[in-house]
Structures are given as structure tokens and as C-alpha cells.
Amino acid sequence: MRRFRPGILPTLVVLALLPVLVGLGFWQLSRGEQKRELLASYAERRVAEPMSLYELQGTEDQAFRRVRLHGHFDAAHSLLLDNRMHDGKVGVELLQPFLDQASGRWLLLNRGWLPWPDRRTPPVFSTPDSSLSLEAWVYVSPGATFQLHADPTGASWPRLITAVDPAVLWSELGRGGFNYELRAEGGPGTYVTEWPVVAMGPEKHLAYAVQWFAMALALLALYLYLGWHNARENNHGNGHESTQHI
């Protein structure tokens, strides 16, 4: 131990920070693996044949399943999901209740992205009046959406929101509905329907994990250097004092 004297305070700092940095690195690796599994599941299910809503409701794992629908939109209760980007342009996504006639069940259908360049004027959109046959897929968010404040209920329509929660809408409207968002595939009644499945890909999580591990390694190297440097300084000081006494 005479050759390694880092000091009490640096030791306490390293004991506190090193497990956190390593833990964050492994957490990012875990998130990356989850995203890889998510993307693999998405790719597999997006090429499968669409099912009816009855079949979907009997499926245990509903994420990314394709479904056939026939019915009409409820234009009176439109939702505009704010802060959506596409090709570097700001806009919103248009979500509307859709009544599937075969099952009699309400769905919250995302019709796609709309540009909104000027906040002083509302986004412009139209809603088909007649019944439509279309295909959609179930979107299940990989994580909870962070919100600075809760979206208001009882506000005027169309309503600007920051997160999608179909259950809240069905409760407010007094309807029985499907509790996941469905995203329409390109076709009649849709706008821009090119969504990324995840906001951050697995490679980003790997890069962040490398950064956390590098920070942990740098902290450990600095701690070791400080310990050896302090020990050398202490030994040199002791040797100088011994020479003076002689």
C-alpha cells in the first residue's frame, strides 16, 4: 500500500461513480438488444398477411400485426400529435377514431404526417365521408413517452396532443375501443405514412454504451495514476527528510 495512496476523497468519488458508469453502459447494451429484437419482429410481421380485427383481438402479442379494416372515420374528434419531424420539416400526425363495421369496435387510426410550417394557422386536412377499406398495423411504443404536462381533456377539437393514449380518449367519449394506436398503410385517406419504428436504432445504443465504458475506464485510469503519483511524492518527501536528519 505504500506504493498506492489515492486519498480518501478520490476513493469515495470512484466508488460512487464507477458502478454508475458501468451500469449505464450495460443498460445501453440491453436497450440496443431490445431494439434489435423489436426491429426483427417488425420486419417479420410487416410482410405477413393482414388479419381481421377479430383475429387480432385473439392474438396475445399484437405489436406490429397487420389488420384489415372497413368502416368510417369520426372527423369530429381529431387529434394532432405535435412535434413530429419528416425530412427535416416540422409537422403533426393526424389521428382519428375509426369505427370498424365488421366488429363494431372503435380504433384510433393514425392517418399520417402533415406539415405545419406556420403555428399561427391550424394544419389543413380533410376526412373522407364514405366508408373505406384499408390496412393498418398496430403500433406499440417501446417505452413510455415523456411529457412535461398532461394533455388537456375537454379542450376544443381538433385537439393538439403530445402523446397518444387511446384509453383516455375512449373514456372521455364513452366508447369501447382498442387500446393501441393503429398506423394506416399508404392508401385512400392517408397522408405521409413513413414512420420509423424506433426513434433511436441499436447502433446508437451501442455507441452510447462505448462512451459510458470509456468514461468508466478513464475514471479508473485517473484514480490509479493519482494513487501512484501520490505514493511517489510521499516516498520522495520521506527520503528527503531522512537525508536531512543524517
What can you tell me about this protein's structure?
The chain has 246 residues and is α+β, with helices and mostly antiparallel strands. Helix content is 39%, strand content 24%. Strands 1-3-4-7-5 form a five-stranded mixed β-barrel. Strand 3 (89-100) and strand 4 form a beta hairpin. The chain is elongated, with a radius of gyration of 28 Å.
Number of domains: 2
Write down how many β-strands occur, each being a DSSP E stretch of 2 or more residues: 7
* Portion of residues within helices: 25-40%
Biggest sheet architecture: 5 strands, mixed, barrel
Element pattern in H and E: HHEEEEEEHEH
* Rg, alpha carbons: 28 Å
From the spread of the alpha carbons, the general shape counts as: elongated
Q: Can you count the helices?
A: 4
Rounded mean pLDDT score: 85
What amount of the residues lies in strands?
15-25%
Can you list the strand order of the major beta sheet?
1-3-4-7-5
What ranges have pLDDT less than 50 throughout 5 or more consecutive residues? 242-246
Structural class computed from helices and strand pairing: alpha+beta
In short:
By secondary structure, the protein is an alpha+beta fold.
Defining traits:
alpha+beta, 4 helices, 246 residues, 2 domains, five-stranded mixed beta barrel, disordered C terminus, 24% strand
